[in-house]
Each structure stands twice: as C-alpha cells, then as structure tokens.
Design a protein that fits this description.
There is one protein chain. This protein has 345 residues and is of the alpha/beta class. It has a single domain, classed as Rossmann fold (3-Layer(aba) Sandwich), CATH 3.40.50.300. It is 45% helix and 11% strand. The protein has 15 helices and 10 strands. The strands form 3 sheets. The chain has a 5-stranded parallel sheet with strand order 3-5-2-6-7. A 3-stranded antiparallel sheet has the order 8-9-10, with no helix packed on it. α12 packs parallel to α15. It comes from Pelecanus crispus. Its main location: Golgi.
Length: 345
Amino acid sequence: MLFKQQALLRQKLFVLGSLAIGSLLYLVARVGSLDRLQPLCPIDGRFGPRGQDEIPLRALQFKRGLLHEFRKGNATKEQVRLHNLVQQLPKAIIIGVRKGGTRALLEMLNLHPAVVKASQEIHFFDNDENYAKGIEWYRKKMPFSYPHQITIEKSPAYFITEEVPERIYKMNSSIKLLIIVREPTTRAISDYTQVLEGKERKNKTYYKFEKLAIDPNTCEVNTKYKAVRTSIYTKHLERWLKYFPIEQFHIVDGDRLITEPLPELQLVEKFLNLPPRISQYNLYFNATRGFYCLRFNIVFNKCLAGSKGRIHPEVDTSVINKLRKFFHPFNQKFYQITGRTFNWP
C-alpha cells in the first residue's frame, strides 16, 4: 500500500513539474516576442512627424506576413480597418527600361521596411483599355500598406510609350521616377533573347539578331527594330522632360546593380528620402545562379526567377561594334542630360 502511495505521489509531482516548466517556457517565449516588437527605429523625414500614428520600421518588418495575406485577398473589411491599412497610389514608379533590371530593382527595394511593391506590372498608363477604367481601378490594383509606407510599381513599357508621361503627370506631377539602364547594345541583345526564348517555347522559328538589328538594304542599324529603338535612351527621356524636371528622375546603373547592388540601392534610398535600412546583410551572392539573392530576415530568403540571367546567343562582332558606334552619340547626350556617366563603349 505504501509503495502504491509513493508511486502515485511521484506521478503527481512529475505532472506538476511538467506544467511548471511548460508555463515557464511559454513566458520566456512570450517576453522574447514582445521584446522583438518594441519600436527600435521609427520612420522619420518625409513620413511625417513623430507621434502616436507613427509605425516603427521594425514593426513593419514583422508585419510583412500580414500584408502578404491581404495581397492574396484574404482580408475582411474589419481586418483592414483594424490594422489601419490602405491602398495608396504609388509615390514612385520604375518606368523602365525593359531588360534593364526593373524586376531586380523592385524586389531589392522591397527589402526596405518602408516600401511596399505592386507584385505585377499594372500597365495602367500604357494600356488605353486599362487607363479608361479610371484612377480608382488603378488604386485598387495597389497592395495594402500602412499610411507611412510608400508604394512602388514598375511597368517598363511606360518609358517608351508616348502617352504615358502626360498621363502620369495628371495623376501626380511631383511623383518620383526611376529609370534603370544597361549598356544599350547588351540591353538590346537581352531584349532579343527574351523574345527568342518565347518563340522557342512555342516551337516557332525566329530571325537571328543580326538580321533584325541591321537593315539588309542599307547595311545600317535598323532603328525600326524595337529592341534597338528602346536602347536610344535619350530620345525617350526627352519626351518625359516635357512634363517632369530632371530632378524627379533617378538613373540606376543596371550593370552595377548585378555586380555591386548595395551602393546603387543606397542611392535610391536617398533619392526617395527613405531612412537608410538596406545593408549588406540583406544581399548575398549565390554562386550557383551567378547573381545576388535577397535576405529579408533570418528565416526568409529570396532569389529572382530562374529566367533571370539568360545566356545570350553569340552575335557577330562587327554587328556589336556597329551598334556601339551608333549608340555612342545618344549615350553622350544621355550622360549630359542626366548628369551620370557610364563606362559604355
């Protein structure tokens, strides 16, 4: 009998001990999570005066998952109201250039806790059918964000579409405009490569780059070929300058963004009046892919799609030299207008 009572007592003590340890572990975890959510670095500058409505940057980082759920359409009106979320028109737009690195730039800027990106290209200003739907349709295509965050979208076709500058000006004459460029000949070949890959997936044939880029009748550069025309950056920029001063543009070096992204991103932070938050910790080189991937925190990493960094077809050297000679005077004028010089041949 005594033995049974002792065994029963040991069993009760074991249960009580387990409950006590479990409670202690819960409290430790709870205190730790609360500590992580303490305001560490409030948004300053252009995001308004410090006060009760201010959203700490660290808190914004921890709420990315919540914003993701809202982007997927899983939010109720009550949840949106409770979390003070809004769908804002963009305060900055990446307007181009196609195959210059617009997706990489957008994803890298999204590392900043005060930036929220539109995941898809909206094509509002360059598509007449979409534009006819009105500005509220455009706003509803934007992601949910907190009032102190800025929304950024990118649609590379904006840069080369004639109607777009005036349309964006009518929406917001003081908007910030980002243009990411690469060496023009390399960009044109990259443009061709993307189209070629699409044709091959559909088992369709396509002309060689040389035949498209050079007019067979004159043996001169074919300016009617869209990939060539897009790389004449100064021609398109001059159209934009009829509506916006050069101070509202920031030129990003797309070639440098591939090899040395942090300095380029820091320049963009400054242009957008964002507090500097993107650091080398957020960027790590993936030797397998051959370019930088993104580290949002200790848990969440992201690499760009496998389609990035396509291998370009071999192009006749004489054609490359002819294109570089053709682009040279346009490049010089582009340097003069923008105040930024590139080491393009």
